[in-house]
């Protein structure tokens, strides 16, 4: 798990995500632990990956359920919630 110390560092992790590197877990001091899942626009590629990897299917289903329960936030919301104090 990566420790993120700035919004710039978080954006670097996000920009490096791709189909092969699609899950990023990180810790932000003062906020907690996060799991970020990269999802491509092409539903077929996600479906194929999910069918090939039962653990990925489980993670996506759990993420969807948590989002429905109000535990999710967009990347924009996350970035807006961060302050320099969070990275001390």
Give a description of the structure.
- The chain has 88 residues and is an alpha+beta fold.
- It has one domain.
- Helix content is 47%, strand content 16%.
- It contains four helices and three strands, in the order E-H-E-E-H-H-H.
- The protein has helices at 7-15, 43-52, 54-68, 75-81, and strands at 2-3, 23-28, 32-37.
- The chain has a three-stranded mixed β-sheet, with no helix packed on it.
- Helix 1 (7-15) links the parallel strand 1 (2-3) and strand 2.
- Helix 2 packs across helix 3 (54-68).
- The mean pLDDT is 85.
* Rg calc: 14 Å
Overall number of structural domains: 1
Q: Which regions are unreliable across 5 or more consecutive residues at pLDDT < 50? A: none
User: What percent of the residues sit in helical stretches (DSSP H or I)?
Assistant: 40-55%
* Average pLDDT figure: 85
Fraction of residues in β-strands: 15-25%
Shape: globular
Order of helices and strands: EHEEHHH
Largest sheet: 3 strands, mixed
Distance between the termini: 18 Å
Give a short synopsis of this structure.
With 88 residues, the chain is α+β, with helices and mostly antiparallel strands. The chain is built from 4 helices and 3 strands.
Q: How is this fold's topology laid out?
A:
Elements: E1 2-3, H1 7-15, E2 23-28, E3 32-37, H2 43-52, H3 54-68, H4 75-81
Parallel strand pairs: 1-2
Antiparallel strand pairs: 2-3
Helix pairs in contact: 2-3
Q: What descriptive keywords fit this protein?
A:
alpha+beta; three-stranded mixed β-sheet
